[in-house]
Design goal:
The complex is a heterodimer of chains A (about 230) and B (about 180). Chain A has about 230 residues and is an alpha+beta fold. Chain A is built from 8 helices and 9 strands. Among the domains of chain A are: about 50 residues, no CATH class; about 110 residues, Immunoglobulin-like. The radius of gyration of chain A is 25 Å and the shape is elongated. Chain B has 2 domains: about 90 residues, Rna Polymerase Sigma Factor, Chain: A (Orthogonal Bundle); about 70 residues, Orthogonal Bundle (Arc Repressor Mutant, subunit A), CATH 1.10.10.10. The two termini of chain B are about 30 Å apart. Chain B: Belongs to the sigma-70 factor family. ECF subfamily.
């Protein structure tokens, strides 16, 4: 199944494989090429070889270390989602081995793992004008802080950023609050001392605070307390 | 264990939900991938969002790497490149960023100097050597397509050629490049 273009242009599918790998193939031809690709191992080999060669274009690009909040945000997304897994999945690793299983069942109850959504610490975040309000819940069993927006939002093209404000020391960016609910997996060193901790939400440019500290656009704040 | 084998082993562990492996994979590859996203997008906030997208995807789809034909780092580089180019396209479509032609005028697609070729790995050296058998302007078009998402329309406009004749010419070049690389 050749399209008219493949007949008229030199190179047929072989040249198509290179165009595809290079991102030059016109959008309307991609579906046709991909259905051919599925059926032809030789073509797959070609595309893989081109991918390998063209990736060399990036070899001379200098490496840049991403700022630490990038990994924090990624972990908040991926591990946060895992923490919401059903209870049996969280408990499963503890049930390996029938003998110790009995002993560990007690441990599981004691650590509160069977009630993963039970908030241990929580905070209402708001500001004097009341335009933006959020709930924060921290589950000590999973180490996950869940922040849900109740009212208000960031202005167009801006983003809300959540901060932990230690009594002494620099503010720590925890997450960008892009959706109505955000899960943040907190690092263990932070988790230790969260009771009474002050949380702050600021409004920042789309990618988050450029200086690594909250700008003047304070939108809401509150303290985590035991309820 | 080579770096490639290590990345492959980490990907296999990530696919079974190993968080330590995920952090190690991030530590081993994020500087390379962030460098690429930053070079393509020229914007830290956008490049950081691409990194989030790439690594979230890696966590969810690491298993797809198994059986892939490309090397594991190439797989990651390709995902990052594609995500960055897609983002660049979206920013351009929304009028928030200039087109690739303007970008390349400001920041010319880098062609390694002859003396740099020796330091490159085998595939990169073969590619650069074979690209030198093409007219320089057309070899640079291939670079611009990969690194800046230039389309045939973009390239034809800046070369003052018709899109169809440029495409026919470049497809011929790609076949010549393929012949050279398989020698």
């Amino acid at each position: 199944m050749k399209t008219p273009l493949d007949r008229d242009l030199p190179g047929g599918w072989e040249a198509g494989a290179a165009e595809y790998s290079l991102g030059l193939m016109p959008k309307e031809e991609i579906a046709g090429f991909e259905s051919q690709l599925v059926a032809e191992p030789d073509l797959q080999q070609d595309v893989a070889a081109w991918a390998e060669y063209f990736a060399c274009f990036t070899d001379l690009i200098p490496e840049e270390t991403p700022p630490p909040q990038v990994l924090r945000r990624i972990e908040g997304k991926v591990f946060g989602a895992v923490e919401k897994a059903p209870v049996w999945q969280q408990v499963l690793p503890y049930l390996v081995g029938a003998v110790v299983g009995v002993v560990l069942a007690w441990g599981v109850f004691a650590s509160g793992l069977l009630e993963p959504d039970r908030p241990v610490l929580s905070a209402d975040l708001s500001a004097a004008d009341g335009a933006l309000t959020l709930d924060a819940r921290f589950d000590t069993a999973t180490g996950v802080l869940t922040v849900a927006r109740r009212t208000g939002a960031a202005a167009d093209g801006r983003v809300l950023e959540l901060w932990l404000m230690p009594d002494d020391g620099a503010p720590m960016s925890l997450a960008l609050l892009r959706s109505a609910e955000t899960l943040v997996a907190l690092p263990p060193e932070v988790v230790r001392d969260l009771s009474g901790a002050r949380l702050l939400v600021s409004e920042e440019p789309a990618g988050g605070a450029p200086q690594g500290a909250p700008s003047d656009g304070l939108r809401a704040e509150g303290r985590l307390t035991t309820r | 264990m080579t770096a490639q084998e290590e990345i492959e082993a980490l990907l296999a562990r990530v696919s079974s939900g190993d968080r330590t492996a995920f952090r190690k994979l991030y530590a081993a590859t994020s500087a390379k991938l962030y460098g690429i996203a930053l070079r393509i997008l020229r914007d830290e906030a956008l490049a950081q969002e691409v990194m989030e997208e790439v690594f979230t995807g890696v966590w969810e789809r690491a298993a797809q790497y198994r059986g892939a034909l490309a090397s594991p780092l190439t797989w990651l580089v390709t995902i990052t490149r594609d995500a960055s180019i897609a983002r660049l396209g979206a920013e351009r479509a929304a009028g928030r960023m200039t087109g690739p032609v303007e970008i390349t005028e400001r920041l010319y697609a880098p062609r390694p100097e002859v003396k740099e070729l020796e330091g490159l790995r085998e595939e990169a050296r073969a590619l650069e050597t074979c690209l030198r058998e093409l007219p320089r302007a057309r070899a640079d078009m291939l670079r611009q397509a990969y690194l800046y998402g230039a389309t045939y329309a973009d390239l034809a406009r800046s070369a003052g050629a018709s899109q169809d004749s440029l495409r026919a010419t470049l497809r011929g070049d790609l076949l010549a490049l393929r012949d050279c690389l398989s020698r």
